[in-house]
Design brief:
Distance between the termini of chain B: 18 Å
Radius of gyration of chain B: 19 Å
Structural class of chain A: alpha/beta
Strand order of the largest sheet of chain B: 1-2-3-5-8-9-10-13
Number of helices of chain B: 9
Distance between the termini of chain A: 69 Å
Oligomer: heterodimer
Largest sheet of chain B: 8 strands, parallel, barrel
Strand content of chain A: 15-25%
Number of strands of chain A: 30
Order of helices and strands of chain B: EHEHEEHEHHEEEHEHEEEHEH
Mean pLDDT of chain B: 94
Strand order of the largest sheet of chain A: 3-2-1-13-10-9-8-5-4
Low-confidence stretches of chain B: 302-310
Shape of chain A: elongated
Structural class of chain B: alpha/beta
Helix content of chain B: 40-55%
Number of strands of chain B: 13
Strand content of chain B: 15-25%
Largest sheet of chain A: 9 strands, parallel
Bound molecules: flavin-adenine dinucleotide
C-alpha cells in the first residue's frame, strides 16, 4: 500500500568520535547535495561514537536548510522531560529543522552499565509510550499552567509546560516487533526500521499491524510516515540488492514505495561520493518514477490532517478552505505552536484558527477568508492590546507578527517604513545606529500596529509628540480587501482617521514615519514616600507642567501597604549632557522623602528594551483611563481617595502636553490635545474599580486615551472621541467598513445612511 | 596567598531566553567579537522560558571559532553524569577543545522534582556531586582500558566503557558558597565559580579561599590547582563612584585588579546581556586589568609558590 507521502531522502551519518570533523563534513555535504534529512544513530554507552544530541545540535549550527534527526534516540537512557525542552530548543534554534526518531532501548547490558535501570522489553515499550505522552504534553503546555502527567516510568508533577517548538515535531519510532508497531499505529507519526534487519514480508506485516492500530484509534494510516534505513553501494553492474548502477537502485527501491509505502529513504553511505550518487542520481529518478506510477494509479498524495489536529478543530470554521498561501503557516489548536499564539499579554484566549500572513496580499486573503466564516475576528500585531481584544474564543485571529520589517527609506528626511508586527524595542534598536528614535511608549514589547493606530504616549512625548504625529503614510487593507495607501494627499480622510482610530478602519500593513534625531538620554527612577498623596500629586503635576519639554515623566503608585504610599517617578530627559539631566531632575528631589534613586545616561533602546518570554495572559484586564488638563487640588484629592481605596494595584499618570499640544485637535482622530496628563488605573475587578473611578475620577476627565481603557459601556466611545471627531469617524467608517468588520477595539458604529459627512 | 597567579580571562553570562533564540546566539557571537575568552549560560532545565543549555552550548559552539563555552552551571540532578561525561567530551572534540564544565549540585528541588528528577538534601546533593565528578573524570580517562565502576550512593556505573577522551583537559568548575562544597572544590575541582551578587561581604571571599586552599593541600594538591572565577554584574557610566563595578572602565579595571590581587580571582564573567558592555569589557577593561596585574605581579614576586601565567 502506497500512503502517498511526499518522497524524502536522507543521510545516515556515522558519529565516529575519532573523526569529528569528518562527521560534520559529511552532514554539510548532505545539505549541499540537496538531501532532506541528516540523521545520526544514538548509542550513548558506546565511546567510539560522539554523543548524538551534542552532535545534532552542532550540525544544526553548521547548516542552514537540511532537517536533522536522531536515528533513533535511546529513550531508555534519556529522561524525557529534559529531552522535551531540549528538542523544542533545538527546533527553535534551527528554525524548525528538528525531527525526532525514538527507540525504546535495546542493548540492556550496556544501558545498565551506564547506571540506567534495566527494563524488560514490555516495560520498555510502556516507558516509551509514557515518554511520548510526556514530550507532547510539555510542547503543548505553557509556563503558567503546571503539568501533571502520571506515569510508572516517567511522570511530571507540577513542571512548567513549554516551550513550544517552532513546528510540530514528528515522532518516528524505530521498531521491529508488533507491540511497538501497535504503539506507532496508535500514537506516533512514523515507523523507522532498518532494511538490514527485516526479512522479506516484514514491511508488509508491520504496516498491517500499524494500519490496524491506527484505524482502531480513529486515525488515518496515512498520518504515519514510513521511513527506511538502507545501505548499499554503487558500481557499473547490478550485483544483488542495492549494489550496482543508480538505475538498478531505482528499480529496486520503487516497489518499497509503491507496495510498502516507504516515504523516506535514509542512506548510510560509506562516503561523500556514494552519497552524491544517491542524492543526484537515485533520488530524482526515483521521484520521477514514483510520480509516474502514482499518476497512473491515481494514488492520493500529500499530507493528511492528523486526527489529533482534527479533534481540536472548532465549529464554524471551514478549515479545508483556508487559502493555500496561508495554510502552511496557520496555527490550529492541535498544532505544536498553539500555546505560543493563543494568549495575548493581558488576556487568555482560545481561538479556533490563527492566520499568519506574510505580506499585504496574504493579509487581504486572510481577511476575505475570515469574513466568510461565521466566527469572531481579531487583528493582532504584537498582542499587547489593553482595549484591543486581539484574541478570542473559537474565532479567527489575523496575526501580523511575520510582517515585521523595519526599513530606512530615506536618510536625509529620516523616513522609515515599519511593518505592524515589529515591536517598539526592535524599532528602537534599528534606529539607534542612525542616531534616531521614534517616541512610542515605555515598553519594548508593545507592537507597532496597535500603538501607531491609536496614539503613542511615550518617554519622549513632550519633546517629540505622539507616535502618530510622526506618521506620514500608511498602507492599509480595507474590509473589502483593497490595499490602499493613505497620506496627506491620498485618502486624506482615511489618513486622518487612522491616526487615533485605525483599528476601526482596516488592517494597516505598513507605516511610514519621519523619525527624530535622538542621542543618549537621561533616565531616572526616583522612589518617594508619598505620605500625603494629594499634595504629592499636585506638586509633581505642577513641576512637570513647568518643566522644559525635554523632560517627560511618568508617575506610578501601587496599592498602599500598611498605610505607606510609595510613588515612583520615572523621568526621561532628552539630553546626553549630565549637567542638563541633573538640573532637570533637581526640582523633583524636593517632592518628598526619597527612598531610592537611580539616574543614568542610556541609549534610547535601553529604556524600551524588548522583554523576554511568551505571552501568558489570563482572564480579562480591568482598566480605566482619563485625560486631564491639570492636576488640580480637586483632582489630586479624588485620586488620593482612589489610591487609598485599594481598588487599583497600579495607578499611573503620564505627562503628555508639550509637543502633543502643538497639533490642532481636528488634525487627527486623537483629539484631546490640550490634556497635560493621561491617568490610568488597573484594578483586580471591574465592578469595584468602576465604582470608585466613576465617582472620583470621571468628573475631572476631559476625554480618555482608548489604548488604556477597557470599560465596555458605550459612553466611553464619546469620551474617546469628541462629537465632531466621532461624527467624522462614523461617516468614514460607513464608507470603508459599512458591515463593521473591524470592531474588536473601541468600536465606532458606522454612520446611518443619510447622515451627511463632516467636511474635511 | 590571595593571588594564585593564574592568567586572566574574561567572559559573559548570557540569559538563554527562548523567546528570541537568535538574540541569545548573537550575544555569544558578540562575546567572541569583543575579544572575550568565554561565553557561559545558566542551566535551569525546569525553566520553560529558557533554551536547553546543552543544546544551546553545542549550537553556539558550531557558530563560533575561538571563544570557550561553559554552562554556569550545569544542573547535575537533571543531567545524569555518565551521559554528561560523553556529551562533554563530544562537545570538546567537536569544538577543538573549547568546552569547560561548570557544575552545580542543584538547588530548586521542587522544580527538579516536578521534572521527574530527584529531591536531595543539601548534604546529599554534595555527595551526589562528588560521585558525579568521579564518574565524569573516570569516563574521560582513557589511559586505562579497565571498565569504569563507581558504586556511589546516588550514582552508579557498573562496567561502562571509558571514553571518548576530550580534546583537552576539561576544567570542572563548581558554583559554591558553603564550606562543604568549598572543601569538595579543594579536593576535586579545577575552579570555584561564585557570583559576586551573592557575596555579602568581601571578607567572606577570603574565608572561602582559605577553606578551599586547606582542602586542596590536605588532598595533596596546591591551591593554585583551583582557579577562582567570579560572576559579576555592573554598569558602565562616566562618573566614578564608591560602588563596585559602577563607573568608567578604568575604575572597573582597578576594582577587578584588586579582586585578583587581594582575593585571587582570575576569571570575570559579566552578566547583563548587553553587547555594548561586553565590548567595553573586552576592549577596555580586560587589557587594563591585565596590565595592572602584570605590573603588580612583576613588582612583587615574593611568593615563590605563585606561578604567574600558564
Ligand atoms: C505593557 C504595556 C505597555 C504599554 N505602554 C504603552 C505606552 O507607553 N504608550 C502607549 O501609547 N500605549 C502603551 N500601551 C498600550 C498599547 O499601545 C496598546 O495596547 C496597543 O494596542 C498594543 O499594540 P499591539 O500591536 O502590541 O497590540 P495587539 O494586541 O496586537 O493589538 C491591539 C489592537 O490594535 C488593533 N490593531 C493591531 N494591529 C493593527 C493593525 N496593523 N492595523 C489596525 N489595527 C490594529 C486591533 O484592534 C487590536 O485588537 C501599553 C500596553 C501594554 C500592555
Amino acid at each position: 500500500m502506497d500512503y502517498g507521502h511526499h518522497l524524502e531522502f536522507g543521510a545516515f551519518v556515522n558519529p565516529d568520535s575519532a573523526d569529528p570533523a569528518g562527521v560534520v563534513d559529511l552532514a554539510r555535504r548532505a545539505e549541499e547535495l540537496g538531501l532532506d534529512l541528516v540523521t545520526v544513530q544514538d548509542h550513548p554507552y558506546q565511546p567510539a561514537l560522539l554523543e548524538t544530541w551534542t552532535l545534532l545540535s552542532w550540525i544544526a549550527g553548521s547548516t542552514d536548510r537540511i532537517r536533522i534527526a536522531p536515528n533513533v534516540l535511546n529513550m531508555a537512557i534519556r529522561p524525557p522531560a529534559v529531552l522535551a525542552r531540549a528538542a523544542a530548543s533545538l527546533d527553535l534554534l534551527s528554525g524548525g529543522r528538528l525531527e525526532l526518531g525514538l527507540g525504546a532501548g535495546h542493548f540492556w547490558d550496556a544501558i545498565a552499565a551506564m547506571g540506567t535501570p534495566r527494563l524488560s522489553p514490555g516495560e520498555s515499550v510502556d516507558a516509551l509510550t509514557e515518554a511520548i505522552e510526556l514530550l507532547r504534553a510539555v510542547w503543548a503546555g505553557d509556563a503558567s499552567s503546571p503539568l501533571e502527567v502520571p506515569g510508572a516510568f516517567h511522570a511530571l508533577d507540577g513542571a512548567q509546560g513549554g516551550p513550544a517548538p517552532a513546528h510540530t515535531i514528528p515522532l518516528w519510532i524505530g521498531a521491529l516487533k508488533p507491540r511497538m508497531q501497535r504503539l506507532i499505529g496508535a500514537k506516533a507519526d512514523g515507523w523507522w526500521p532498518s532494511l538490514g534487519r527485516l526479512a522479506p514480508g516484514d514491511l508488509a506485516a508491520g504496516n498491517a499491524v500499524i494500519d490496524t492500530a491506527a484505524t482502531e484509534a480513529g486515525r488515518d494510516p496515512r498520518e504515519i510516515r514510513r521511513l527506511l534505513n538502507i545501505t548499499g553501494s554503487f558500481g557499473p553492474t547490478a550485483q544483488g540488492e542495492l549494489s550496482g548502477p543508480p538505475s538498478a537502485w531505482v528499480e529496486q527501491l520503487l516497489p518499497y514505495v509503491l507496495d510498502d509505502g516507504v516515504g523516506t529513504f535514509v542512506y548510510a553511505a560509506s562516503g561523500g561520493a556514494d552519497l552524491e550518487r544517491f542524492a543526484t542520481e537515485v533520488a530524482p529518478a526515483l521521484r520521477e518514477a514514483v510520480a509516474a506510477e502514482r499518476h497512473a494509479r491515481s494514488t492520493p498524495v500529500g499530507a493528511v490532517v492528523p486526527l489529533a489536529v482534527r479533534a481540536k478543530r472548532r465549529e464554524g470554521i471551514d478549515y479545508d478552505t483556508v487559502p493555500a498561501a496561508l495554510a502552511a503557516t496557520a496555527v490550529e489548536p492541535g498544532h505544536a505552536g498553539f500555546a505560543g499564539v493563543r494568549n495575548t499579554y493581558l488576556r487568555g484566549g482560545s481561538p479556533g484558527l490563527v492566520l499568519r500572513p506574510g505580506d499585504a496580499d496574504e493579509v487581504a486573503q486572510a481577511l476575505a477568508f475570515a469574513r466568510s466564516q461565521p466566527v469572531p475576528l481579531a487583528v493582532r500585531s504584537a498582542g499587547h492590546g489593553i482595549s484591543g481584544r486581539s484574541t478570542n474564543d473559537g474565532g479567527i485571529v489575523i496575526d501580523l507578527s511575520r510582517l515585521n520589517g523595519i526599513e530606512v527609506l530615506d536618510v536625509d528626511t529620516r523616513r522609515v517604513r515599519i511593518e505592524p508586527g515589529a515591536r517598539w524595542g526592535e524599532v528602537a534598536q534599528a534606529l539607534h545606529p542612525h542616531g534616531w528614535a521614534l517616541s512610542s511608549g515605555d515598553f519594548g514589547g508593545v507592537g507597532v500596529g496597535g500603538l501607531a493606530t491609536a496614539g503613542g504616549i511615550g518617554w519622549l512625548g513632550r519633546k517629540h509628540g505622539l507616535t502618530i504625529d510622526h506618521l506620514r503614510a500608511v498602507e492599509i487593507v480595507l474590509a473589502d480587501g483593497a490595499l490602499v495607501r493613505a497620506d496627506a494627499e491620498h485618502h486624506p480622510d482615511l489618513f486622518w482617521a487612522v491616526r487615533g482610530a485605525g483599528a476601526n478602519l482596516g488592517i494597516v500593513t505598513a507605516f511610514e514615519f519621519e523619525v527624530d534625531e535622538v542621542g543618549d538620554v537621561g533616565f531616572a527612577q526616583l522612589v518617594f514616600d508619598a505620605g500625603n498623596v494629594a499634595t504629592f500629586l499636585e506638586n509633581w503635576g505642577a513641576l512637570q507642567e513647568a518643566a522644559p519639554r525635554d523632560l517627560t515623566s511618568f508617575l506610578i503608585i501601587g496599592r498602599p501597604r500598611g498605610g505607606q504610599v510609595v510613588a515612583t517617578v520615572m523621568a526621561t530627559v532628552d539630553s546626553d549632557d549630565p549637567d542638563t539631566v541633573i538640573s532637570r531632575l533637581q526640582p523633583f528631589a524636593t517632592l518628598g522623602p526619597l527612598l531610592q534613586q537611580a539616574v543614568q545616561i542610556l541609549p534610547y533602546p535601553a529604556i524600551v528594551a524588548t522583554p523576554d518570554g511568551g505571552q501568558h495572559g489570563q482572564g480579562e484586564p480591568a482598566t480605566r483611563s482619563a485625560l486631564v488638563e491639570h492636576l488640580t487640588p480637586e483632582f489630586a484629592a479624588a485620586a488620593a481617595k482612589l489610591i487609598h481605596s485599594g481598588v487599583s494595584y497600579f495607578f499611573q499618570i503620564r505627562s503628555v502636553g508639550g509637543a502633543v499640544a502643538d497639533v490642532p485637535p481636528e488634525e487627527t482622530a486623537y483629539a484631546h490635545r490640550s490634556a497635560n496628563f493621561s491617568v490610568t488605573a488597573f484594578g483586580a475587578g471591574r465592578t469595584r474599580l468602576d465604582a470608585v473611578w466613576d465617582t472620583q475620577i470621571q468628573p475631572h476627565a476631559n476625554g480618555l486615551y482608548l489604548s488604556f481603557e477597557t470599560d465596555p459601556r458605550p459612553e466611553r466611545i464619546a469620551d474617546a472621541f469628541p462629537p465632531a471627531t466621532l461624527a467624522r469617524l462614523r461617516e468614514i467608517k460607513a464608507r470603508v467598513d459599512p458591515e463593521n468588520v473591524f470592531r474588536d477595539n473601541f468600536n465606532v458604529a458606522p454612520a446611518e445612511p443619510g447622515i451627511t459627512a463632516v467636511a474635511g | 596567598m590571595p593571588d594564585y597567579g593564574h592568567d586572566l580571562t574574561f567572559g559573559t553570562f548570557i540569559t538563554p531566553t527562548n523567546a528570541a533564540p537568535a538574540t541569545v546566539v548573537d550575544l555569544a557571537k558578540a562575546t567572541e567579537a569583543a575579544g572575550l575568552d568565554l561565553a557561559t549560560f545558566q542551566d535551569h532545565p525546569y525553566q520553560a522560558g529558557f533554551l536547553d543549555t546543552w543544546t544551546l552550548l553545542s549550537y553556539v559552539a558550531a557558530q563560533t571559532e575561538r571563544v570557550s563555552l561553559s554552562a554556569n552551571v550545569i544542573n547535575l540532578p537533571l543531567r545524569p553524569p555518565a551521559m554528561l561525561a560523553r556529551a562533554a567530551a563530544s562537545l570538546d572534540l567537536l569544538s577543538g577543545g573549547r568546552f569547560e564544565l561548570g557544575l552545580g549540585a542543584g538547588a530548586f528541588w521542587d522544580a527538579i522534582g516536578a521534572m521527574g528528577g530527584p529531591r536531595r538534601t543539601p548534604g546529599e546533593s554534595i555527595t551526589a556531586l562528588s560521585e558525579g565528578i568521579d564518574i565524569i573524570r573516570g569516563l574521560w580517562d582513557t589511559s586505562t582500558r579497565e571498565r569504569l565502576v563507581v558504586d556511589g550512593e546516588f550514582y552508579r556505573v557498573d562496567g561502562a566503557k571509558r571514553g571518548p577522551a576530550p580534546a583537552h583537559d576539561i576544567q570542572i568548575w563548581l558554583g559554591a558558597y558553603k564550606p562543604r562544597m568549598l572543601r569538595l572544590i579543594g579536593r576535586k575541582a579545577d575552579g570555584w565559580l561564585p557570583s559576586l551578587g551573592y557575596v555579602k561581604d568581601l571578607n567572606d571571599l577570603t574565608t572561602s579561599n582559605a577553606t578551599i586552599d586547606e582542602a586542596a593541600l590536605a588532598a595533596g594538591r596546591t591551591p593554585g590547582d583551583v582557579r577562582r572565577l567570579l560572576n559579576i554584574g555592573g554598569t558602565f557610566s562616566a562618573q566614578r563612584g564608591d560602588a563596585l563595578l559602577s563607573g568608567p572602565p578604568e575604575q572597573w579595571a582597578e576594582q577587578l585588579a584588586d579582586l585578583t590581587l587581594e582575593y585571587g580571582f582570575s576569571t570575570y564573567i559579566l552578566s547583563g546581556d548587553d553587547a555594548r558592555s561586553m565590548m567595553i569589557l573586552g576592549q577596555e577593561v580586560a587589557p587594563a586589568v591585565r596590565e595592572l596585574v602584570r605590573a603588580e605581579r612583576g613588582a612583587d614576586r615574593t611568593d615563590p609558590t605563585s606561578a604567574v601565567g600558564r
